[in-house]
Amino acid sequence: MKHTTPSLRDRVRAQLADLKLPGALEALDEVLAALDGGQLQGPAAIERLLGAQIGLRNNRRLVAAMRSSRLPAVKTLADFDFTFQPSLKREQVESLHTLGFIERRENVILLGLPGVGKSHLAISLAIAAAQSGRRVYYGTLADLITSLEEASLGGRLSHRLNTLIFPSVLVVDEIGYLPISRTGAMLFFQLMSRRYERASTVPTSNKSFEEWGEIFGDEVMASALIDRLVHHCHIVNIRGNSYRMKNHAALAAALRHDTEPSSRPPAPRRSARREAAAR
Ligand SMILES: Nc1ncnc2c1ncn2[C@@H]1O[C@H](COP(=O)(O)OP(=O)(O)OP(=O)(O)O)[C@@H](O)[C@H]1O
Ligand SMILES: [Mg+2]
Q1: Which residues form the pocket of ligand 1, taking CB atoms under 6 Å from any ligand atom?
Q2: Is residue 136 part of a domain?
Q3: pLDDT (0 to 100) of residue 5
Q4: Does 140 reside within a domain?
Q5: 122, 236 Cβ separation under 8 angstroms
Q6: What whole-number distance in Å separates Cα of residue 127 and Cα of residue 71?
Q7: Mean pLDDT taken over the chain
Q8: Of 106, 217, 219, 255, which alpha carbon lies 20 to 30 A from 57's?
Q9: Cα(146) to centroid(ligand 1), Å
Q10: How far is the CA of 209 from the centre of ligand 2 (A)?
Q11: Atom 14, ligand 1: residue with shortest CA distance
């Protein structure tokens, strides 16, 4: 039996246009045909219609985020092959993508050797957040520090800091690859202090926390930084092979050493935070 007459169909079409729901409008004919054909029942038809609109909205948000958030690529959880990284707790990663950590202003720290998927997962978290309507920003540590240094020299530091404090998710990729100047480290510490308990940061690193002192050129500051980052955080330690080498298993095995980053924060230094704050 047909559920929809042409005039009813036109009225629904006009309502969807009036409400500015182009995704639902585009899906309308197909959904009504499925309803009339008996392939869809009432609630499922409503769900399909609304789902089409949500899909369109999410794509638009993704396009806008790719422009404004400096995300380098589109990487999603659906593209991530968990069978390649058996050490990874799939439930933990999937649960993080439901984004409760953003509500709770917690951080997600991704650790592991090159090519294990740290940036992929950091970007997929940022994309999920952008699709849910949150503001996100991506930068490598080196890029973020360069932008802070330039802003500082140009007298625009507080403006730049505000830009980086505001996003609900800030990905700080590639901590540990490039050397950082003392001023750069201090500016980054300032940024992290301002974001602490205010918004989620997603750092990635190929180095264990014990080695962060060397990266930042200052053990006390690194310790105070780690203290803030790990206070409310999820640590995802990826122990496995580089995906980039997945077709070169023998080479990967030869290159892999057992010095994978340890997620154990260094021994607490009681005075670290006070000393850093006093600088
Ligand atoms: N498990 C996986 N499933 C599908 N693609 C993956 C997986 N792991 C990594 N990749 C892909 O492999 C490439 C390297 O991964 P990624 O850039 O995330 O590594 P990384 O851990 O950030 O490495 P680096 O420390 O060198 O920056 C990317 O193109 C990524 O999308
Ligand atoms: Mg990376």
Answers
A1: 75, 79-81, 84-85, 112, 114-120, 174, 204, 206, 243-244
A2: yes
A3: 82
A4: yes
A5: no
A6: 9
A7: 89
A8: 106
A9: 24
A10: 17
A11: 115
> Do 145 and 223 sit in the same domain of this protein?
yes
Could you please report the per-residue DSSP string of 16-71? HHHTT-HHHHHHHHHHHHHHHTTSS-HHHHHHHHHHHHHHHHHHHHHHHHHHHS--
Per the domain annotation, does 1 fall within a domain? no
CA of 23 to the centre of ligand 1 (A): 33
Residue 6, pLDDT score: 77
The yes-or-no verdict on residue 268 having pLDDT over 60 is: no
> Ligand 1 pocket check: which of 120, 178, 205, 208 to mutate, most ligand atoms within 8 Å of Cβ?
120
Comparing C-alpha atoms, which of 88, 17, 26, 28 is closest to residue 56? 26
The residue behind tokens 């197909």 is: 30
pTM of the model: 0.83
The string of pLDDT tens digits covering residues 91-112 is 999 999 999 999 999 999 999 9
Mean pLDDT along residues 43-49: 94
Pair (102, 46) in one structural domain? no
CB atoms within 10 A of CB 165: 18
Q: Are residues 244 and 142 in the same domain?
A: yes
